[in-house]
UniProtKB/TrEMBL annotation:
The lineage of its organism: Eukaryota, Metazoa, Chordata, Craniata, Vertebrata. This is THOC3 protein. Belongs to the THOC3 family. Gene3D superfamilies: YVTN repeat-like/Quinoprotein amine dehydrogenase (2.130.10.10). It comes from Ceuthmochares aereus. InterPro entries: Tex1/THOC3, WD40/YVTN_repeat-like_dom_sf, WD40_PAC1, WD40_repeat_dom_sf, WD40_rpt. WD repeats lie at residues 6-48, 131-165.
Length: 209
């Protein structure tokens, strides 16, 4: 493993996301009101896109064509990954935490401060459903690579696992004591890592907990 530093942002870098199919590209969201696309082959920034607000969350669509970025004012902007221009902008009336497309690229998911998962159609961005997922702030969301499940993490220190097709919770993971900040599935979807302010990372077998 080689270690590289990627410098250019003028404020905190709050999230990064890899391109879904090109292993050389990733994008970062920053409080400096920009997002930046980086190429690991040159370790340089290949594009800087100015946004309206301080960015805190970012994701790349599964087809690689669109980048969605959310800011502190709960505005989500959809940016064309090739032209780097804004395609759509949506202001929400609730605290937007993490954002993600489903693997089929036809729905857009948001976790919010009221403990809900909001689901919009894509690209129309029409509300489809709101799921009461947690009793407190719903912080992070991740889809498994196989398209079978997605997981959410909450301020209640629980991770819940959801069936993508049925939109029902199939199990909960409860070994953490602090708000769950980030989640990651293994490449085959068999394991789920969750991290909080606890001083360890919990890795669970998805099927058994």
């Amino acid at each position: 493993v080689k270690e590289n530093n990627y410098r250019g942002h003028g404020d905190s870098v709050d999230q990064l996301c890899w391109h879904p199919s090109n292993p050389d590209l990733f994008v970062t969201a920053s409080g400096d009101k920009t997002i930046r696309i980086w190429d690991v082959r040159t370790t340089k920034c290949i594009a800087t896109v100015n946004t309206k607000g301080e960015n805190i969350n970012i994701c790349w669509s599964p087809d690689g064509q669109t980048i969605a970025v959310g800011n502190k004012d709960d505005v989500v902007t959809f940016i064309d990954a090739k032209t780097h221009r804004s395609k759509a902008e949506e202001q929400f009336k609730f605290e937007v935490n993490e954002i993600s497309w489903n693997n089929d690229n036809n729905m857009f998911f948001l976790t919010n401060g009221n403990g809900c998962i909001n689901i919009l159609s894509y690209p129309e961005l029409k509300p489809i459903q709101s799921i009461n997922a947690h009793p407190s702030n719903c912080i992070c969301i991740k889809f498994d690579p196989m398209g079978k499940y997605f997981a959410t993490g909450s301020a209640d220190a629980l991770v819940s696992l959801w069936d993508v097709d049925e939109l029902v919770c199939v199990r909960c993971f409860s070994r953490l004591d602090w708000p769950v900040r980030t989640l990651s599935f293994s490449h085959d979807g068999k394991m789920l890592a969750s991290a909080s302010e606890d001083h360890f990372i919990d890795i669970a077998e998805v099927e058994t907990g």
